Amino acid sequence: MMEEEKGAEEQQRFSYQQRLKAAVHYTVGHLCEEVASDKEMQFSKQTIAAISEVTFQQCENFARDLEMFARHAKRSTINTEDVKLLARRSNSLLKYITEKNEDIAKFNLERKAKKKKKLEDENKNSVEPAEAGVVESEN
Amino acid sequence: MADSYSRDSEPTTRTLLRRVLDTADPRTPRRPRSARTDVQRALLQTPSSRRLRSQTKMTARRCSHRARSIDRLTHVQASGHLEEQTPRTLLKNILLTAPESSILMPESVVKPVPAPQVVQASRRESGRGSLELQLPELEPPTTLAPGLLALGRRKQRLRLSVFQQGVDLGLPPSQEPHGNADASSLTSSLNLTFATPLQPQSVKRPGLARRPPTRRAVDVGTFLQDLRDTSLALAPPDTVLEDTQPFSQPLVGRSPSVHHSLPCPSHSGAKDVERAASRRTWSSGLGLQNNGAGKPAQLLAGKVEEVGALAMGFPNISSNISGKDGIEPLQNGVGEEAEERMEESLREVEKAAEAQGSARAEEPEGHIEVTEAEGSWGAVEAKEPEGSSGDEDTSGRTASPELASSTPEFLRARRLQFLETAPPPSTAVLPSEPPEPLSARLPPKPRIPGSRPRQDPYKTGLNHYAKLFSFYAKMPMEKKAVEMVEKCLDKYFQHLCDDLEVFAAHAGRKTVRPEDLELLMRRQGLVTDQVSLHVLVERHLPLEYRQQLIPCAFSGNTVFPAQ
């Protein structure tokens, strides 16, 4: 019974993996088409397959490394710091990621500021009528 | 010479053997010599090599070499006396080959050694067939005796070889030859020869078959020239090896295509860029999978510098090289197709670039690949840095011949002129950016291209590892290969320490701890889910280190190292 379950699980995981690989292959194909049209140079099927295979393997590596980094920093969640550590090898990539990170951080801050403002306004609004009410009641 | 010896009344093994041998009738040495010599030389070799291992002091070795040479000569002589191989001849051969120099008294040994050596040399010459020195030949065996006796005596007091111990047990003592030896030694001292003593160094390690270190007189002019060449070459190699971008054909650097692609980086402190490039390329070398085109930029930037320096320094030489390359890259540029070849050519390109930097035309092929790589890299730069770009490579390669052909002219041009050349598409901007953050990130070390003494402190520690490498290679290695190994090791360790620093900072620490190292090993693939660090420690480290790493329970209810 257990073995059957395990076998079924394996099958499920395997099929899941295959689906992921297919998705990656599809995306890689699209990107290659774009580049091909841009550079007026064709991509052979084998090339696309090779690229997608390599991308998939690399994704696995990245995931494992990210988990290792997070565990090394005694965290249970993967952070942007982990991602930056992973990308440090490639300078351009690192720069890109850092910039994106800053943008996102800024965006988050702005959002938070907006939210806070909204909350304050709401509080004020709720407080004023209450005060007004109190004043009126007092009066 | 004979006067220096005092009559030794007590019979030592050596003296006894000597006497036994001397009693043999001298015969024409020439007859069986050829057949004998080979056998005896073989005999000589093994004992001498055995002796070599047992001796540790240089003086002793030197003396023993001389003694051995004497022995060999005597050997040749003595062989002529006996027609067939008897136990006596064998014993004699062994006796002769045994080093007779004493470890503690090299000076006294030195004096008698040259004299018999000279005599032996003369005998050897006669052995070769010269008729003139026939007469002294009769004396030789006896002449040797006093020298050997004295040496052997001293040696005997200090050290007994295994064989001699056996001989002591086996041989019966005989006293007669002793007196004869002394008498004849007086006459033999008058013999002179102008033959140079046999060089003992060739016997040193017959098993390894290595050439003795050739010592030539240092020519000041060439030395200075070499200094200049290597100083110029110093800058390039650092940058050359630096970039290890995977499909980087980045290595090139030398060619003008570099300048094409990186006009900007050269502006910002070229030296910093070079340094950064060196760091980067080194890291990229290890992380081949994760490379982008960023690193090639730095490498090229660094190369720009070098090329400029080179161009200014040796325009003629570089033009010669580039002239060669201009023709060849065109032929080979189209030839290369495989991406792996490009990666392989990275290494070759590095070497080629280095050679080029030193203004040597030794590696035109490497240069071809360099130019090819340059051309392809220039094309790659035009594209976005991606994980794998086989297509880029192919397209780059087609562009390479054109770029390569322009190499010769650019090599002659000045650095500023390089910068003025039209930069390639906007992607050039992207590569130019990375060098700046890099230089900011790394502490800018003031590196003067051409400061030869500065490089030494970086490499001195690696000498040891390079020698280990050449030992385990089991093959003779060129000096250049050893230098390359040193450079690779240098880059490797730099990268390693950078990683460790980053890992420690990642965990919010300022000190590197074993956990950081374990993480590093995990990334390297040495430690996996199946193989843990402890397993590796147990497998490879000796017990002393293992004790320090793996907690073990000791007496008194203590655990070391404490967790």
From TrEMBL, chain B:
GO cellular component: kinetochore; nucleus
Record-level Gene Ontology MF annotations: DNA binding; protein heterodimerization activity
Keywords: Cell cycle, Cell division, Centromere, Chromosome, DNA-binding, Kinetochore, Mitosis, Nucleus, Phosphoprotein
InterPro entries linked to this entry: CENP-T, CENP-T/H4_C, CENP-T_N, Histone-fold
Chain segments carrying region Disordered: 1-39, 252-272, 323-408, 423-459
Domain CENP-T/Histone H4 histone fold: 457-553
Gene Ontology process terms (BP): cell division; chromosome segregation; kinetochore assembly; mitotic cell cycle
Compositionally biased tracts (Basic and acidic residues): 1-11, 19-28, 343-353, 360-370
Residues covered by the Centromere kinetochore component CENP-T N-terminal domain: 1-417
Location(s) in or outside the cell: Chromosome, Centromere, Kinetochore; Nucleus
Biased composition annotated in UniProt, kind: Pro residues: 423-447
Residues in coiled coil: none
UniProt function note: Component of the CENPA-NAC (nucleosome-associated) complex, a complex that plays a central role in assembly of kinetochore proteins, mitotic progression and chromosome segregation. The CENPA-NAC complex recruits the CENPA-CAD (nucleosome distal) complex and may be involved in incorporation of newly synthesized CENPA into centromeres. Part of a nucleosome-associated complex that binds specifically to histone H3-containing nucleosomes at the centromere, as opposed to nucleosomes containing CENPA.
Family statement: Belongs to the CENP-T/CNN1 family.
Subunit structure comment from the entry: Component of the CENPA-CAD complex, composed of CENPI, CENPK, CENPL, CENPO, CENPP, CENPQ, CENPR and CENPS. The CENPA-CAD complex is probably recruited on centromeres by the CENPA-NAC complex, at least composed of CENPA, CENPC, CENPH, CENPM, CENPN, CENPT and CENPU. Identified in a centromeric complex containing histones H2A, H2B, H3 and H4, and at least CENPA, CENPB, CENPC, CENPT, CENPN, HJURP, SUPT16H, SSRP1 and RSF1. Interacts (via N-terminus) with the NDC80 complex.
Official protein name in the record: Centromere protein T
